[in-house]
């Protein structure tokens, strides 16, 4: 479906507004999904993120299988992992992911506003370094094909695998969904163990309180 520029802008505005409302009401945050699971052993956001990833993976690879959609193509290499690691550190220090930072800024959180401002400043400064000092040089090493001496793995997505191997992208999507579901099941089992442990601790405290009252009587 082809939309006029105004129609496209309106559709983007409505989609963005609804997404922002859902994120604000659910308090969903990508950073919290990983940070809370690792540091605090709570998995509310983690489970929500896994479910979203499974739904998106299925829909995305289904479109690719039937030749629809416009997937992004970008090289994956050492620079990708280094950039994601630095981005993750910045978001944990800021206390929220980029999406959640936008939401908090809209709620009037001054700290989130500063984090958002310096996100833009950092992206601008990095864009200056990208053109002159980027290693390995992008024009020669990022060709879409594996280039191990330059630590580049080429295009790494289901569309590329479908083209090169002749296997429908949905197959790779289902494999990824299975892995995500296994993680989801492991979290549910861990939460069940935590709940049973909390019940035992609560029962012990209740027993100790009862004994203390009996001795006092």
Short précis:
The chain has nine helices and two strands.
What value does the average pLDDT take?
82
Low-confidence stretches: none
Cα shape: extended
Number of strands: 2
Binned, the helix content reads over 70%
N-end to C-end Cα span: 79 Å
> From the alpha-carbon coordinates, what is the Rg to the nearest angstrom?
23 Å
Structural class: mainly alpha
Count of discrete domains: 2
Q: Strands of the biggest beta sheet: in what spatial order?
A: 1-2
Main β-sheet: number of strands, strand sense, barrel status?
2 strands, antiparallel
Tell me the fraction of residues in β-strands, as a range: under 5%
Count of helical stretches: 9
Instruction: Encode the helix/strand succession as letters.
Output: HHHEHHHHEHH
Structure description:
By secondary structure, the protein is mainly α. It has two domains: 1-73 and 170-216, no CATH class; 84-138, no CATH class. It is 76% helix and 3% strand. The chain has helices spanning 5-26, 30-40, 44-65, 78-94, 98-106, 110-133, 138-141, 158-165, 169-216; strands spanning 75-77, 152-155. A two-stranded antiparallel ribbon has the order 1-2. α3 packs antiparallel against α9. The longest helix has 48 residues, at 169-216. 15% of the residues are buried. The model has no long low-confidence stretch (mean pLDDT 82). It holds the Pfam family Sulf_transp. InterPro entries: Sulf_transp_TsuA/YedE. The chain crosses the membrane at residues 6-23, 48-66, 78-103, 110-130, 165-184. Keywords: Membrane, Transmembrane, Transmembrane helix.
């Amino acid at each position: 479906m082809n939309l006029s520029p105004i129609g496209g802008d309106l559709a983007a505005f409505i989609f963005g507004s609804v997404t922002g409302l859902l994120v604000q009401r659910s308090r969903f945050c990508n950073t919290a999904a990983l940070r809370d699971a690792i540091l605090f052993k709570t998995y509310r956001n983690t489970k929500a993120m896994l479910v979203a990833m499974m739904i998106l993976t299925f829909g995305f690879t289904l479109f690719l299988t039937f030749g629809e959609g416009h997937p992004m193509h970008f090289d994956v290499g050492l620079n990708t992992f280094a950039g994601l690691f630095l981005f993750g550190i910045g978001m944990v220090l800021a206390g929220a992911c980029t999406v959640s930072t936008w939401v908090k800024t809209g709620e009037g959180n001054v700290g989130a506003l500063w984090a958002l401002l310096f996100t833009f400043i950092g992206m601008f400064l990095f864009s200056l370094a990208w053109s002159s000092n980027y290693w390995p040089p992008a024009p020669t090493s990022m060709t879409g094909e594996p280039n191990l001496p330059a630590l580049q793995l080429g295009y790494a997505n289901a569309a590329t695998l479908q083209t090169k191997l002749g296997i429908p992208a949905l197959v790779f999507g289902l494999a990824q969904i299975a892995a995500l579901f296994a993680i989801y099941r492991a979290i549910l089992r861990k939460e069940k163990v935590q709940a049973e442990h909390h019940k035992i601790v609560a029962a012990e405290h209740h027993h100790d309180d009862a004994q203390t009252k009996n001795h006092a009587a």
